[in-house]
Specification:
The chain has 16 helices and 10 strands. The protein is α/β, with parallel strands linked by helices. Bound molecules: pyridoxal-5'-phosphate. Keywords: Lyase, Pyridoxal phosphate. InterPro entries: Ser/Thr_Dehydratase, Ser/Thr_deHydtase_PyrdxlP-BS, TrpB-like_PALP, TrpB-like_PALP_sf.
Length: 384
């Protein structure tokens, strides 16, 4: 019998362990009984089968994200992203009674701001890690951004998504040449699949939001805003895992502590909003929403974004499905632009009066445009 594949139903009697009576056998098929018998934790076992000797994100690396890393990110990603324009919206300004600007991240090459964080993370990896490949889990836009950057640099990429992610987002991921793994009914299922690949194949995990380089990449939007609107009053940011909010919040508040930062999520499954109310990360069941990109948890062991959002948010607000549709419809009719539900949450909040503007300029982050045309047409109808 090969001791490496032994299931320990009839363990040899001569292998004695001081604690459990057995030792030396190193089964590669692990279950609870085997673990107890062999005095081995699951983590120890994983180390043995994983090509990685130790987990890439050691505790010691968990320094708070600093404003300096956003400046570094700005330089690092400059040639890969668009410094997006800021558009004054006369119609919204009239509606709210104060100047309202739109930060057009929908114009990025992948149709969403996510390229900033993905680019900064991938470009920060060692050549060895890049060569080995990357993996990620996503509600779509981050997966697309990772695939785009991976293709530019010839890096193998595996993107894990749940069945909820629409073809509008999964098709381009495939077209970019990334391997797509569809697993489970929610972002958390996709995440567990991704962790498996990280451990077993040694791929580097590019987290969608809870990562210092990703946060710093998204924060470059904040630096651009400070240059574009020197008397910035309020920034409205769609809020899910909080990478976008944390980055912009750090950049803006470090320079203009009086500016208001407002996070907006949909009423259905607003995990960060609930977590802030309860004072700790919580989980919620995912429900259908027009703002599908904002679905997904923040991780019960959230490392950065929960505390950063808690620190920088002056308010968080929820908007209804009707208000999201109104935001999409407004962008289409007033600015002749297509935006996805997640990106329309801030507009919905302003149009409905859930967020009030003052005399100082308000910026609404238009975070993306990747939406299924049939969903867009329905939303335009519903929100008209
Ligand atoms: C278009 C769009 N807007 C906003 C967000 C929220 O970003 P974050 O998860 O960093 O809060 C996402 C996240 O996927 C998104 O795709």
């Amino acid at each position: 019998m090969n001791p490496h594949t032994c299931l320990l139903r009839n363990p040899p009697k001569d292998l004695a362990c001081p604690r459990y009576g057995l030792s030396h056998i190193r089964p590669y098929r692990i279950n609870r009984v085997q673990r107890r018998i062999n005095c081995k934790t699951e983590r120890e076992h994983r180390r043995e089968v994983s090509p990685l000797k130790e987990h890439p994100e050691k505790k010691a690396d968990r320094q708070p994200v600093e404003i300096g890393s956003i400046w570094e990110a700005k330089e690092r990603i400059a040639s890969h992203i668009l410094q997006t324009p800021l558009l004054l919206s006369p119609a919204l300004s009239e509606h709210t009674g104060g100047p309202v600007y739109l930060k057009l991240e929908n114009l990025q090459p992948t149709g969403a701001f996510k390229i900033r964080g993905a680019a900064n993370k991938i470009l920060s990896l060692s050549p060895e890690r890049q060569k080995r490949g990357v993996t990620t889990f996503s509600t779509g836009n981050h997966g697309l951004a990772v695939s785009y950057m991976a293709r530019r640099f010839g890096i193998p990429a595996v993107v894990c998504v749940s069945r909820r992610v629409p073809p509008e987002k999964t098709d381009p991921i495939r077209r970019m040449g990334a391997k797509l793994v569809v697993h489970g009914n929610g972002q958390d299922d996709a995440e567990s699949q991704c962790h498996r690949l990280e451990w077993e194949e040694g791929l580097t995990l590019i987290r969608p939001f809870d990562d210092p380089e990703v946060i710093a990449g998204q924060g470059t939007i904040g630096l651009e805003l400070l240059e574009q609107v020197p008397d910035l009053g309020t920034v409205i940011v769609p809020l899910s895992g909080g990478g976008l909010f944390s980055g912009i919040g750090l950049a803006v508040k470090s320079n203009r502590p009086d500016a208001r930062m407002i996070g907006v999520s949909m009423e259905h499954s607003a995990v960060m909003h609930q977590s802030l109310l309860q004072g700790k990360p919580v989980t919620l069941q995912e429900q259908d929403t027009l703002a599908d990109s904002l679905l997904g948890g923040i991780g019960l062991e959230n490392r950065y974004t929960f505390s950063m959002v808690r620190r920088w948010a002056d308010e968080t607000r929820l908007v209804s499905e009707k208000e999201i549709a109104e935001g999409m419809s407004w962008m289409f009719h007033q600015h002749k632009m297509v935006v996805e539900g997640a990106a329309a949450t801030g507009l919905g909040a302003l149009l409905s009066g859930r967020v009030r503007s003052g005399s100082q300029p308000v910026v609404v982050t238009i975070s993306g445009c990747n939406v299924d045309p049939s969903v867009l047409l329905k939303a335009i109808d519903a929100g008209a």
